[in-house]
Amino acid sequence: MKRIPCMEAAVAVMESEGVDTIFGIPGAAILPLYAALRTSSIKHLTVRHEEGGTHAADGWSRATGKVGVCIGTSGPAGTNMITGLYTAMADSIPMICITGQAARAKLHQEAFQAVDIVEIAKPVTKWAVQLKEPAQAAWVFREAFRIAQSGRPGPVLIDLPIDVQRGTCLYDSTVDAPLPIEVPEPSPQGIRAAVQMLLQAERPLILAGGGVIIANAADELRNLAERLQIPVQTTLMGKGAFPEDHPLFAGMAGIQTQTLWGNAAFLESDLVLAVGARFGDRHTGDLETYRKGRKFIHVDIEPTQLGKVFEPDLGIVGHARSTLAALAFQAQELAPPRPTGRWPERVGELRSTLVRRDDFDAVPIKPPRVYRELNEFYGPDTTFVTAIGLYQIWSGQFQRTFLPRRYLVCGQAGPLGWEIPAAIGVKCAYPDRSVVAVVGDYSFQFLMEEIAVAAQYRIPFVIVMVNNEYLGLIRQAELPYDMNFAVDLHYGEGGIDHVKLMDAFGCPARRVDRPEDIAGALAWATAEAEHAQVPVLVEVMVEREANAAMGPSLDNIVEYEPLPNLVPTANTA
What we know:
The protein is α/β, with parallel strands linked by helices. It folds into three domains: 3-175, Thiamin diphosphate (ThDP)-binding fold, Pyr/PP domains (Rossmann fold); 188-353, TPP-binding domain (Rossmann fold), CATH 3.40.50; 367-548, Rossmann fold (3-Layer(aba) Sandwich). The chain is built from 24 helices and 21 strands. Helix 7 links the parallel strand 6 (127-130) and strand 7 (155-161). The longest helix is centred in the N-terminal third of the chain and has 15 residues, at 50-64. It is globular. Pathway: Amino-acid biosynthesis; L-valine biosynthesis; L-valine from pyruvate: step 1/4; Amino-acid biosynthesis; L-isoleucine biosynthesis; L-isoleucine from 2-oxobutanoate: step 1/4.
């Protein structure tokens, strides 16, 4: 074997693992790795903040299903990455963050920008490791990719002392390859028991979580649902796992991101098959209401997820794709294909009658109208990226999604500022795909410096800002306290002008105050982004004190707008 710089071996491993784009910031303690990148096929984008780099790598990973990579130097570069690592850990996103480090001999002497980033990162990673010897470089990187993708995916941190980076190792890429990824198969006994429960149930639902997306199991999900004629709901992380125009789509249940008819269908169900879902608190709400009157089958790739929130009637450990395929095969063995029955028809009734308005013509603009325009203007292949706040909740309630990996949201950690860098990552992964970042005015300002990255590297996408000049979700949470404290941003009185801000980055922007102008602004922004090859902003000024429908339990959602065409939701199946 040939002796080469150990960082060249590390870069060769990343290339063979399918990494074509890396997001990072060079610094003195990471320069040997950057020297190796110079002659590689990997494109590097210099971000403006290491947190932004992690979110860009996160977005790239969510769009591709592969392992995203972010690089930073020592000290604060690593600590700036912690939010991104936590976000990836919470949402099961495979990602590797690489940090530079002081020389090994200096680590105990409080050297400049020397911090024990491995210990800091351990709670928010699947594996945090410091490279000790140059000869380990290729194999530590191989193991990092294996761990990031095996079982429940997640992030890894690799810390690289500068003296180790300067070392050499024996390595030949022609005799090396990615390590096998563990894919646990479900037990035949569990599969048979699950199918029998599904066949015996009168009103079963399938609940598709983010694990179905991660496992690329949308086809298997649809096959099982159609064979047994079982309506399908998705969680927020599972949006896109099942097409929302399918007759068997049963909406979303939850206390924040939910549809009215989705909650009603869930409450009428008697069995829930949950696949790759965590039973997060924003989905379940009050557990007594959520569980009462129905049985649960919980399928997850991670054994310790079973029983974590509540004990299921049947737990199955398995990869979502192979488990759904096994369920469909077992159903074929036990019963003929089912015709459409009363239960799917009942779900269809709820879907057509328990709706929320989105056709408001009022000024100021009501937020649901924004999402109606997005649904009507953009096609099913558009990738939407959104983060946290009232605009995420409205998005979950009103936006329609038809394909996997086209609705990307930081669901569990919910860091403000995630959308812009994540959209950059998505557009880098799929340059020909239309990408739209739906942002709040406050969230936009968290990492707005990353607009400079998209402008520099000519990365075009559309930003739709839902601007209520408030910390809207916090203001709504303050209502029970009878206060309105520290949430008023009121940019209209001498504050930030987002249109001028975009102009400072060299990017076009337009403000919209009337609902009839939204569609034209979207058309303009989409064309302008492709023409100028930069991000383009549409700032929609919405009602300042608009609230999103939510509540403590599935049967106690507070609606702030009148509901048309309501029908009784009593169980008539």
